[in-house]
Structures are given as C-alpha cells and as structure tokens.
Design goal:
Elements (H helix, E strand, L loop, with lengths): L1 E3 L30 E9 L4 H14 L3 E8 L7 E9 L15 E4 L2 H11 L5 E5 L6 H4 L8 H9 L4 E5 L1 H7 L6 H12 L6 H11 L5 H12 L9
Parallel strand pairs: 1-3, 2-5, 5-6, 6-7
Antiparallel strand pairs: 2-4, 3-4
Helix pairs in contact: 1-7, 2-4, 6-8, 7-8
Amino acid sequence: MQWLWPVCSTLPAAGNIFGQHPERGAISLSTENMGINIIITGVGGQGNVLAAKLLATAGLEAGWEVTVGDVFGLTQRGGSVASHVRLFKGYLLPPLIPCRSLDILVAFEPLEALRILTQFGRETTRAIINDQPVWPIGVQAGRFQYPEAQELHSAIENLTSKTAFINATRVAKELGNIQVLNMVMLGALYGSGWIPLSPRTFESIIQSSTSSQLRGLNIKAFRRGLKLKGSNLHI
C-alpha cells in the first residue's frame, strides 16, 4: 500500500436506501486496470482521512492492491480535504486519481461533493453524500452565499449516474457523538453494494484500528449506516 500526503490545492421493500443487502455480496466496479477509484471528501475535522485509511486496510485484507493520497486545502481544520483510495489488481497505479476517472464519491459535505465531481466525475460516477452543509469561513463572514439545497442537489445529480443524499449528521448526533459521522458514511458505502468488501471484515478492522473509547460507538455508527432507509434524498 502506498501513501501520499501532498499539501496542495423508486424505494425497495427491504434492504437499505440503495435496495441492497450487503450480506448477499457486493457489486464491483471495473476500470481498465481492474480497479475502483474512490474519493472520500469533507472538511477538516470530519474524519475522512481516518475513513480512507480504514477503507484501504479493508481493501488490502480482501486481496486488493491499494494506494491512498490525501489532498488538503489551505487549512486542515475547516478546509477542504479529499482522500483518494484506489483499489486495483494489475499494474501499480499512482495514488491520485486522474481527472474524469472517479467511480465512487463519498462526501461528508455537499459543497465539497460538487467540488470533487466537477474535476473527477464522469458519466458513470456514483455518489453517497451527507446533505448537511458545513459553511466555509467566507460564508460565515458574509462574503459568499452558500448554494440553496435544491440547486446544489440538482448540480450534483447532473454530474453522477446515481446519487444518494443522506442525513448522516443526524444519525451521528442521535448516537451522541458527531465524531462517528465518518463511520455512518462508511456504513452507507458498504450498504450500497458498490464495493466488493465485507461489512463483517470491516467491523474487525474498526475493532483493531480505532480508539478504545470510541470503538463500540464506531461499530454502532457503521451498522446504522449499513441500514439507512428512506428516499433517494433523505433518510
């Protein structure tokens, strides 16, 4: 596994929001190099870097080759953070995903989702997006206006083949700790059936790779993400 940290700029009757039963087997995506290109994005402090590391570990345990590259904005806490995770079999791939080559986007914040999709999205890109905004400093200071939710959703849907908007923030708050937002989002990813990885194996990775104080809560959050139900816009 390679790591890179550059500093630079209709509903189913059963299953979850995607109509999938992850325990019945995952659906894999393919690129020319037998790979899956995933970006996990959010703002600093939301935990997407840890999420990417755990996902990469799961890929390794499943027999994939893995590269990971984290791209930070100007500030780590509150600034844009995008983690590129590439699962592949064959020739070694560089850590950062080329433009217009994204298979799956997991976005902890909707505006960050749009930023990524405009650069990396293509007609087959699928996305899971936490629809709860985190206002950038410029918006908080009144210099810029944050897009209306419907406008933002429409723009995102125009750049993807399939998108699920979920309120992962609410789930994390219901569990009592916003820090488990990343585990809710990873649960939704596993529940989608879009990756050929086992949820049970991932729970063992959570057990061995997260702090003892949050380990049990992380697993609860992951399981809640697996079982998210509702429309294609909200749980």
